[in-house]
Amino acid sequence: MARRSGVDVDRWTNIHGLGRLRHEFLDQVWRNLAWLTLVLVPLSLFRIKFTGWLPLYGVHLVLAVAVLLIALNRKRLSVRYKAPLLVAVFWGVGISGVINFGLASAGLWWLLMGAVVTGAVYNLRHGVIMGIAVLVVLLLFMLAFSSGQLSTRADLNVYNTHPASWVNMVIGTALCIAVIVRSIILYHQSLVRETEHRFQQWVEDMPAAMVVLDSDARVSFANAPARELLGLSDKPGVRYLGNFYRAGSDTLYPLEDLPMLRALKGEQGKVDDVEVLVAGRRIALQIWGKPCLDWRGKASFAIATFEDITERRRAETMKSEFVATVSHELRTPLTSIHGSLGLLRSGALGELNDKMQSVVTIAGNNTDRLLLLINDILDIQKITAGHMSFNIAPVAVMPLVRRQMDELATYASQFGVSYRLSLAVAETEKVMADEHRLMQALGNLMSNGAKFSPAGGLVTLEVSILDEDKVCITVSDTGTGIPEHFKPHIFEPFSQADTSSKRGRGGTGLGLAITKDLIEHQQGEISFTSDPQLGTRFSICLPRVR
């Protein structure tokens, strides 16, 4: 047998489930119709005794026998045959009733019920088409009766006045309607159950661990991966997710920061620094939370998905340790080479001719770049691992800015750029920061400003007080600005606006990522604005010492 594709299997499953429901519905109608026939045949015989035999009763007798035979063999028939035969029975009873008794006959109900059954078995469109067909037939009968081309076969005065006729019509019609209505109700209930079961099976078999929390933050549903991952019982009842911890520590994760509880407040969220203890084993998790709103816009329950990232985090740790180890091992010989080249360039080991001096200079510059790259990698690794220490203390801002301008003046001159301080605060103004890390962050911004400004350009520094609580240092260049598409990625590691192999500026793409982490670890903020005509402005704001 040919293997079905994923889409085909899903379609086949849906058709199979609906086909089974249609079978059950038609079997139930045929079974109930058989019992209805056993009730109506004696009633018809009772009416015949008082009102006389009509061809109508011959048709009904044939239909009654057919109903009983089909009902007894219904398990052998497919929907393809059971449904049309059922509709044919309704039309046979309805048409014969209208011919014999006119448009006042109960046959109208049988015709309409044929349309209802068609809609239930197939779809609404088929039901509407059948209903239109019923109306057209009735309209034709009405024209035939009114024009005299057709007349009723029965004496309506006899039938309308005899109690047996009324008993037969009322009981038969009522039972028929009851059978159809009950069957349709059960069919739709089965359809709902089938849909719920199919949906639950989809959720149960999905690879992602999913949990649904009610408004009281209790687990109302958890699929199989969630029960396995979080150690939840599959027995019904009140279930709680357990305790969550900060990654790498025994500190409980704040409940208000968990995405599934934030979702109950109407917020979406995601975290990946969570661990849970299951059967004595710490599992690293990434958690997403999404609220489900009711018609009032209030979160009535929350959906949370959990992903086990233990192996991924272990791989990231191994990668970071590998990078750190290799960087440390590289820095030691590079430092020695850098020092040796410095001695050669300075002439301490003798004068070099112009050709040798040029080669040594090139080697020294490239060694400087390698050391800068290694230091940046070590810094970003330390920050990511949380191993970088900060000594937060009051730091005078203006002396630090001037010292940094003096130290980077030579570097800026390589690009034909100079620094200028256009706005300053009092010399006694201080911020809470780590002086060394603040110098490093400011140095990254100032060196970037010089590197990306055109020759003869100016990098402007401004120091100002913001809202009396913060001191801001702004570095403005006169470069071409940051492309619009790159702005969301400006602080990502190893990201550069010009990623081509021929880009004219050097760099590792780590400077701004390191700067952002350094400032945020000092309870500060960093922001930027950029315009192709005006250049780029980076601002770092730190808590002011008052």
Low-confidence stretches: 1-16, 499-504
Instruction: Give the overall shape, derived from the CA principal axes.
Output: elongated
Q: Please summarize the sheet with the most strands.
A: 7 strands, mixed
Q: From the helix content, strand content and strand pairing, which structural class follows?
A: alpha+beta
Q: Could you tell me how far the N terminus lies from the C terminus, measured between alpha carbons in angstroms?
A: 81 Å
Number of helices: 14
What's the total count of β strands?
13
Strand content: 15-25%
Overall number of domains: 4
Mean pLDDT: 79
Percent helix: 55-70%
CA radius of gyration is 42 Å
What are the secondary-structure elements, in order, as H or E? HHHHHHHEEHEHEEEHHEHEEHEEHEE
Pfam families: HATPase_c (PF02518), HisKA (PF00512), MASE11 (PF20969), PAS_4 (PF08448)
Keywords: Kinase, Membrane, Phosphoprotein, Transferase, Transmembrane, Transmembrane helix, Two-component regulatory system
Domain Histidine kinase: 325-546
Protein name: histidine kinase
Structural descriptors:
Helix Hairpins, 14 helices, Beta-Lactamase, alpha+beta, 4 domains, 546 residues, transferase, 17% strand
Structure description:
- With 546 residues, the protein is α+β, with helices and mostly antiparallel strands.
- It has 4 domains: 7-203, no CATH class; 209-308, Beta-Lactamase (2-Layer Sandwich); 314-385, Helix Hairpins (Orthogonal Bundle); 393-545, Heat Shock Protein 90, CATH 3.30.565.
- It contains 14 helices and 13 strands.
- It has helices spanning 6-51, 55-72, 79-101, 107-121, 124-147, 156-161, 163-205, 224-230, 259-263, 310-346, 354-385, 397-413, 435-451, 511-521, and strands at 209-213, 219-222, 244-246, 269-278, 281-293, 299-308, 393-396, 418-423, 430-433, 458-466, 470-476, 525-531, 535-545.
- Strands 7, 8, 9, 10, 11, 12 and 13 form a 7-stranded mixed beta sheet that branches. Strands 2-1-6-5-4-3 form a 6-stranded antiparallel beta sheet.
- α4 packs parallel to α7 and α12 (397-413) packs parallel to α13 (435-451).
- Pfam families: HATPase_c, HisKA, MASE11, PAS_4.
- Keywords: Kinase, Membrane, Phosphoprotein, Transferase, Transmembrane, Transmembrane helix, Two-component regulatory system.
